[in-house]
């Protein structure tokens, strides 16, 4: 089982660079960040991090093809790959539906999966060949070329998927893997892996060779209650992007979360947190003591075929930035990275 650090680039940049450097020294597989306008630009951050690290892989999880033109995404990935000496990778998706709405884009009118599959083809072709002529439904190019070339023979491109089943099948058939965000039950991951496997086998591929990632809201510390409260502060914000089908696969009735999601949707984050019960927050996160986190991963995620845990580490600074709440005693990012290294990585080696 690989472990990676998923960051939101909302800390002072010097702190983010220091945390990425620590994750590199601790042997984390990758550091990912959200490619969203809401945060600081991951590409500039990772360009700086590439020159200060040696082993850790770097890239977006996810990058929204409804907002970032795929040929420019290929250019950025190839450039980051050269800077890092062959450590770049990318995860593509249609995009965060809440962010798209702020651009005046209704995701239901974008044909999200078809657009993402075509964007994957564009990025893959430019990375592999350096040139592209393509007449598609969403993207058109005539003799486009680039001198931005990756160092890796095959720079990994994966798909982000949440709803399914078609998105999981597409990842299995077309991509180098799938990052499935915000699921916490064995049922949800067995569902995702079964459809990913189906897609891979339809394309004559070995599904076990793919990167199958569980992107989870994560908070760990010696004080269980404080770690769980940190997670609760973020669960509603993340859950607002979860399809109803996914909520049900995670043991949550959508009606149970509807008031919290409605409050968050109008910007009342404090009310949204208040309406997110501790019980729901515990279901929709991996949080608590190291042993509690280990048990949940071992029970709900590891047996399903997932081979990669991607920890969206939640700490006091992140909660304060997003919600204005101050939670003294919550372990900071670097402390949590060390706990993952010391307590979780050995358990799943």
Please outline what is shown here:
The protein has 15 helices and 11 strands. By secondary structure, the protein is α/β, with parallel strands linked by helices.
How is this structure best described in words?
By secondary structure, the chain is of the alpha/beta class. Helix content is 48%, strand content 18%. It is built from 15 helices and 11 strands. Strands 1-2-3-4-7-8-9-11 form an 8-stranded parallel β-barrel, surrounded by 9 helices. Helix 1 runs parallel beside helix 15 (333-344), helix 3 packs across helix 5 (112-129) and helix 13 packs across helix 15. The longest helix is centred in the middle third of the chain and has 18 residues, at 112-129. The chain starts with a strand and ends in a 5-residue tail after the last helix. The mean pLDDT is 95.
Oligomer: single chain
Terminal Cα separation, in Å? Answer: 6 Å
Largest sheet: 8 strands, parallel, barrel
How many helical elements?
15
Structural category is alpha/beta
Strand content: 15-25%
**Could you spell the SSE succession in H and E letters?**
EHEHEHEHHEEEHEHEHHHHHEHEHH
Helix content: 40-55%
Side by side, the strands of the main sheet go: 1-2-3-4-7-8-9-11
Parts with pLDDT < 50 across at least 5 consecutive residues: none
Rg calculated over all Cα atoms: 19 Å
Please state the overall shape, judged from the principal axes of the Cα atoms.
globular
Average predicted local confidence, pLDDT: 95
Beta strand count:
11
């Amino acid at each position: 089982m690989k472990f990676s650090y998923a960051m939101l680039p909302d800390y002072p940049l010097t702190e983010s660079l220091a945390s990425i450097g620590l994750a590199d020294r601790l042997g984390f597989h990758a550091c990912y960040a959200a490619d969203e306008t809401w945060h600081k630009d991951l590409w500039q951050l990772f360009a700086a991090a590439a020159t200060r690290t040696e082993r850790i892989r770097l890239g977006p999880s996810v990058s929204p093809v409804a907002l970032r033109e795929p040929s420019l995404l290929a250019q950025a990935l190839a450039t980051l790959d050269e800077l890092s000496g062959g450590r770049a990778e990318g995860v593509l998706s249609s995009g965060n539906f809440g962010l798209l709405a702020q651009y005046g884009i209704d995701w239901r009118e974008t044909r999200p999966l078809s657009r993402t599959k075509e964007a994957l083809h564009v990025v893959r072709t430019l990375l592999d060949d350096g040139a592209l002529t393509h007449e598609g439904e969403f993207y058109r190019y005539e003799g486009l070329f680039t001198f931005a070339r990756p160092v890796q023979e095959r720079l990994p491109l994966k798909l982000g998927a949440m709803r399914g089943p078609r998105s999981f099948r597409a990842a299995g058939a077309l991509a180098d893997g799938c990052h499935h965000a915000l699921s916490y039950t064995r049922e949800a991951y067995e569902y995702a892996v079964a459809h990913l496997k189906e897609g891979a086998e339809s394309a004559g591929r070995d599904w076990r060779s793919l990167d199958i990632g569980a992107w989870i809201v994560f908070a760990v510390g010696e004080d269980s209650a404080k770690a769980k409260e940190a997670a609760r502060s973020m669960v509603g914000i993340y859950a607002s992007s979860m399809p109803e089908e996914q909520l049900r696969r995670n043991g949550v009735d959508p009606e149970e979360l509807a008031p919290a999601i409605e409050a968050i949707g109008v910007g009342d984050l404090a009310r949204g947190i208040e309406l997110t019960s501790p019980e729901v927050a515990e279901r929709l996160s991996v949080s608590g003591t190291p042993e509690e986190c280990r048990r949940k991963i071992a029970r709900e995620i590891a047996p399903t075929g997932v081979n990669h845990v991607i920890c969206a580490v939640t700490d006091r600074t992140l909660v304060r930035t997003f919600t204005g709440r101050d939670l003294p005693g919550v372990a900071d990012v670097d402390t949590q990275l060390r706990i993952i290294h010391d307590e979780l990585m050995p358990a799943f080696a």
